[in-house]
Amino acid sequence: MFQRLFGRERQANRAITDALYTRIVAAARQEPFYSAWDVPDTPLGRFEMLSLHMFLFQHRLRGETGAPAEIAQLLIDEFFLDVDHSLRELGISDVGVPKRMKKLAKMFYGRTESYKDALERDDHAALAAALMRNVRPDASEWPQASDLAGYVFVANRFLAEQPSQDICAGKLTYPVPQAA
Known about the structure:
Layout: H1 2-6, H2 8-28, H3 31-35, H4 43-61, H5 67-89, H6 96-120, H7 124-135, H8 144-160, H9 164-168
Protein name: Cytochrome b pre-mRNA-processing protein 3
InterPro entries: Ubiq_cyt_c_chap, Ubiqinol_cyt_c_chaperone_CPB3, Ubq_cyt-c_CBP3-rel
Family: Belongs to the CBP3 family.
């Protein structure tokens, strides 16, 4: 038991989750989101893109059991630890962090539900509307929402083609957004 908790297996699992999370973060930080598609390059805009890519990862592994389910849980835990750490780096006090975390968790799960619903119904317009509500709530119009919705559909198919055993080995690839 101690070997499993403190040994090589735990270190290997950590390396896999670190590799996967690094790829999710890198996908969320792709330049076209912020330059061509006008996603705000702010902490909240970056949270939105990270949330979207975490959703795509979680959506890919939903319904799986065993190692994929464990990895999905480890990654969502890592995501929320990263958000917590980011809030502290932004200067949010120790007293304020739990309140903000609760709000951000509620935001994340609300978004994932609307994104999942639109993907499952293959409803491009509904997904674009959800993205606009979440990513650019300040804008009365955001034509790039349709481009981002198209990317989400492409990314969803792209991730679906990646074998679970590859993902469980730390291999994960997102498509590059194709800005017009």
